Amino acid sequence: MTSGPGPxxxxxxxxxxxxxxxxxxxxxxxxxYAHQLARPGAVLAPMAGYSDAPLRQLAAEQGALWTxxxxxxxxxxVLGGDTEKLSLGRPYPGETRRAVQLxxxxxxxxxxxxxxxEAWFSPAAIDLNMxxxxxxxxxxxxxxxxxxxxxxxALVQAMRSATTLDVxxxxxxxxxxxxxxEIAQGLAEAGVGLLTVHGRTSAxxxxxxxxxxxIARVAGAVxxxxxxxxxxxSAAGARARLRLGVAGVMIGRGAVGNPWIFRALATGEDxxxxxxxxxxxxxxxxxxxxxxxxxxxxxxxxxxALRKVLPGYLPDHPELREALVQVNTVEDVRETLAPLLKQGxxxxxxxxPRLPAAAEYAGRHP
Length: 366
What we know:
Layout: H1 32-36, E1 43-44, H2 53-61, E2 67-68, E3 72-73, H3 74-78, E4 98-103, H4 107-121, E5 125-130, H5 149-161, E6 166-172, H6 180-190, E7 194-198, H7 212-219, E8 226-229, H8 235-242, E9 248-251, H9 260-267, H10 275-293, H11 321-324, H12 330-343, H13 358-364
Parallel strand pairs: 1-9, 2-4, 3-4, 4-5, 5-6, 6-7, 7-8, 8-9
Helix pairs in contact: 2-10, 4-5, 5-6, 6-7, 10-12
């Protein structure tokens, strides 16, 4: 028995939601975003400490239109000691439909970083971070660019000159007040192929509610597709936002522990799997993590980084939370989830079942 629902197939997308756009692998090139937006679904947001290769793999298998890497420093790629082994950029085997997100504030450095990222990480597109409000990024790009949008326009132009891949940008509404339409129009003129707008200012960080009316105004003011972001935790909520006129939605925290939200938006089937299958997927997430990162500095295939993630798979089983936030290894996860796995007849399930070959996978999810 396999651990949880397998990857969705093209046949599971509702007939009324198909497109006449020819199928092609999601391996990048001009027009990647337009091609992906021709079918239903949602996008996995870049989240530092969360949207790593294992989470991206689970989201992609459940039908995410594309995923976005954790943000990567352009200076680190060009001037630091980063290599193609950098975990933030390294793809999982067979990964497609992933944008690599860079941050920086120097056009020449970003252009060189784009070239390195394309050569090392095989992305489908390149994204510029203009929304990170974290203090350590200030002065180095991120949301600071909202204060000097003319710098951002030059960055986009430099990035465009360095690649034939689609270049996009992810912004907030502004630094401390809404300038989103003005900034979005400038970015579109500079050459972005797509914009993602998070419905808060940098000053708000993650407080209050995302302003989706402001996002909708941006969508109506620029000639490129606009993806909306902020506070989406359910498929129903995503569909309500889509009715505002955005080209798509991006899901962050709402996808942590719930990759099936992408399946729901791709197929129209909203029901969550039963708890035993969700437990099996949580176990598989742990195995994917251990396989991708290998041994830690103590020689242990640690999954400690998933302590903040695993309880999200089983919110209806709060009795498991205390143990899940203390796990160290895959076997700890297996032991904690054993009652649910046994209940579903999955106690002997391998944590990492055989996946479709890369070619078959790409064919299912162009």
